Amino acid sequence: MTDAALPAGASAPDPSAAIKKRLAARYRAERRFRAYGIAAIAVAVAALLVLVGSIVSQAYSAFWTYELALDVTVDPERIPGDPSNPADIQRGDFGVMLQNALRGEFPDETRNARIRELLALSTRLNSATLGRRVADNPALIGQTIRFKMPISDEVDRYLKGQATGRDWVRLDAAPAVTPDADGETAALRLSPADAARIADAVGDAEPSVIVFSNGGAWRLSGPAAQTAEGEQLIAPGAPGVEDRALILSTPEADRRVSDAQIAWTETLRARGDVKAAFNTYLFANTDSREPELAGVFAALMGSIFTMLVTMVLAVPVGVATAIYLEEFAPKNRWTDLVEVNINNLAAVPSIVFGLLGLAVFINFLGMPRSAPLVGGLVLALMTLPVVIISGRAALKAVPPSIREAALAVGASRTQAVFGHVLPLAMPGIMTGSIIGLAQALGETAPLLMIGMVAFVADAPTGVTSPATVMPVQIFIWATSAERAFEARTAAAIIILLSLMILMNAAAIFLRRKFERRW
Amino acid sequence: MNDREPGGHAAPLTPPTPVVQTHDMHGHPLASLPVKVCTRDVDVFYGDKQALFGVSMDIPDCSVTAFIGPSGCGKSTFLRCINRMNDTIDIARVAGSIEIDGANIYDRGIDPVLLRARVGMVFQKPNPFPKSIYDNVAYGPKIHGLVSTKDETDAVVEDSLKRAGLWAEVADRLDAPGTGLSGGQQQRLVIARAIAVKPEVILMDEPCSALDPIATAKIEELIDELRENFCIIIVTHSMAQAARVSQKTAFFHLGKLVESGPTEEIFTNPRDERTQDYITGRFG
Q1: pLDDT in tens, A342-365
Q2: Mean of the per-residue pLDDT values of chain A
Q3: pLDDT, tens only, B153-175
Q4: Dist. CA B235–CA B221, nearest whole Å
Q5: Alpha helix positions (H), A173-285
Q6: What is the CATH number of the domain that holds B122?
Q7: Residues B5-15: what's their mean pLDDT?
Q8: Which CATH superfamily is domain A297-514 in?
Q9: Mutation site for B-interface testing, chosen from A333, A407, A409 by largest number of B Cβ within 10 Å
Q10: CA A12 to chain CA centroid, nearest Å
Q11: Which partner from A33, A235, A407, A484 sits 20 to 30 angstroms from B72, CA to CA?
Q12: What is the model's pLDDT at position A517?
């Protein structure tokens, strides 16, 4: 190499060696940077998986529910007034019909406290659904119909295994039952093997043990032995669970569903009256104080109406503003001021927009409280800066050569912008707008200020009817006491996330459709 | 002269044919061509910075005028004054007068949109619209209302593409995107787009700097053909190109017009030392 020309023994550093050393260091730096990047992505993906995983694991049980089906006799005597008038029919006492149907399943139960427990298997609110069904079809009056309703949320949690640990022990032989005189307790004689197996399953804990046999159910009062004392929960005779013992690891006092309710539920399940089904109530129902009846329909409609108002206001105004500021406005102190203010607006906390909405739209302009119209207006104000900023960025990204090409053939400025620049900026503008709308879709704070946090029992029918929105619904459920709302909260989050994924998918679709190369 | 025929008949008086000497002895045109663009004391400012200093020159019709000079000398700025493209730059300000056919284009009554229909422009980088070849050419005539029916549009598109030497290559795929053509084809498409609006002047800002030699040769050939009908002004960095295609050359340096004259003269016998230095490659 050229180094050969150097005098031998000269201490001149070998430049190629130095370059190689440096090069190695440069490659190392690059590898390091790539490793950091991959690590960052891995952390982000892991965090996302944990987030989605935890939500899904909480939510999945809310997407199905246990339904109780009863043969309800629609008693004409309980429907006062004109049986051809739907309004009159709905005033009928369908709650009592439902109660009678439930009591009819266990006719031997006469103790008032127990009957109250039995009736708690389904909420009285189901009578409204029954009433509507009969009102829609007055021919049902006087008939016995099969009526399905969601089972009480606590029983549902028990059936899903969330209320207590359950352990079934099959009995080899039917226990000999000797009821005492009042029918409240009985002496049970179990086979030695059965007694040993139950005792084995019970262990040291002091759980509830319910023995089922011949359609009856008894709760053991003492430890499992060959001769055991049992409290009668269900009188034998009717169809039910056959020759099994149910060991419930959580003591009765520590759960919200009683041993008797469990015995009834298991008996109803054995009769085929309790079945798991897809939770349509979650989608079709509006909010309710009973978790088993609560659904997101009203909130979903509220979100859709609110988003419509936001979209109709924020997107055209925002895009028009972006076009004007970017393409037509003179660059002077005033436009600088406008620009600075728009950038500042994008950073304003969203609750401030809520305060503004309350003060201006509701208090000053007298618009209705809790209405999607006001919510949409507030969210539109919040979304506008995002739409404007992203729109301007998209317009700026269009190569100036396109603008010049149009102007050079004699297009006016408007023709150049709307005919050539805007179509090329459209994908970017739409992406920005949809990101802004998605952000608005998940916004809670400003809507709390304008009263969209109210309990809404009816789905909104327009932009002025009272409504709430998905994130607020999630907020309401998350603060509710009933345990069953926990899963429903997670389920509502999944529904909201699906809505957002849907919106983003629409954004990508539109992007692809409008994207053009230049 | 022998005006009279024998016999006393008055011969019909033939009007004296104006002696338009279009070419010198080398076949190069002389300044005797009618002046199309006439500029006087044109100053251009970008904000506080002055980019052009008192440029005055006459540009003849039906010929090619080349602007040469080192980068940043103001030749493109001057070119963009002629169709008021500088109007699109907020901070740009133009002083002095630029007359086309005797009318100052910076007068109050002149609409820059109409002006740009008369003064077409071709840019350094081919910039066809992201539309079909057909739509690229038809766009100008459509917005100016030069065509009203589909047949008329078809005729204009075909004519323009033919004159731009592109018809044979694209006739069977007029619906293909203009951006899908090669660089040289794109540049000819852009020229077709410019001539479709029937301009009087065509400005070309380094039209060949992004093209290979073969495409460049085609464009130069095209420029030479178009010269018959248009006043063409071309900015170029290639002295060889200026010598090949232009009849008149103007040399700019540091925002000033150093000298202009017949191309032959500029390249063989420049009057100014700076021109001499530039064309011999001593700076630039």
Answers
A1: 999 988 999 999 999 999 999 999
A2: 89
A3: 999 999 999 988 899 999 999 99
A4: 16
A5: 192-202, 259-270, 281-284
A6: 3.40.50.300
A7: 45
A8: MetI-like (1.10.3720.10)
A9: A409
A10: 74
A11: A407
A12: 53
What torsion, rounded to 10 degrees, do the Cα atoms A348, A354, A359, A365 define? Answer: 110
Check the CA dihedral A66-A69-A74-A78 and report its sign: negative
Mutation choice for A interface testing from B113, B147, B156 by most A CBs within 10 A: B113
User: pLDDT tens-digit profile of B234-281?
Assistant: 999 888 899 999 999 999 999 999 999 999 999 998 889 899 988 888
Does B21 reside within a domain?
no
CA distance A109 to A121: 15
Domain of B262, in residue numbers: 35-127+199-279
Question: Beta B231-235 vs B64-68: how paired, if at all?
Answer: parallel
Q: Give yes or no for a contact between A453 and A468, defined as CB atoms under 8 angstroms apart.
A: yes
Cβ proximity of A447 and A378 under 8 Å: yes
Domain boundaries, chain A: 297-514
**What average pLDDT does range B82-91 have in this prediction?**
86
Using alpha carbons, select from A170, A263, A281, A285 the residue that is nearest to residue A208: A263
| Edge-to-edge strand list for the sheet holding A64-73 | A144-150, A64-73, A274-278
| Among the partner residues B116, B123, B190, nearest to A410 by beta-carbon distance | B116
Residue B216 lies in a domain: yes
Count of the separate structural domains present in chain B? 1
Question: Chain A partners of B140 at a C-beta cutoff of 8 Å?
Answer: 409-411
d(CA A318, CA A338): 13
The answer, yes or no, to whether residue B197 has pLDDT greater than 80, is yes
Amino acid letter at B13?
L
Nearest to A469 by CA among A383, A370, A380: A370
B→A contacts (Cβ < 8 Å), by residue, are 83, 85, 88, 90, 113-114, 116-117, 120-123, 125, 127-130, 139-140, 143-144, 177, 179, 190, 193-194, 196-197
Cα A247 from Cα A459, distance rounded (Å): 44
A136: Cβ contacts below 8 Å, ≥ 6 apart: A86
Q: Which two tokens stand for residue A230?
A: 């049992």
Region B192-220: mean pLDDT is 90
Counts for chain A of helices (H) and strands (E), in that order: 19, 10
CA distances from A242 to A238, A246, A295 (A): 11, 11, 36
DSSP A78-100: GS-S-TT-HHHHHTS-HHHHHHH
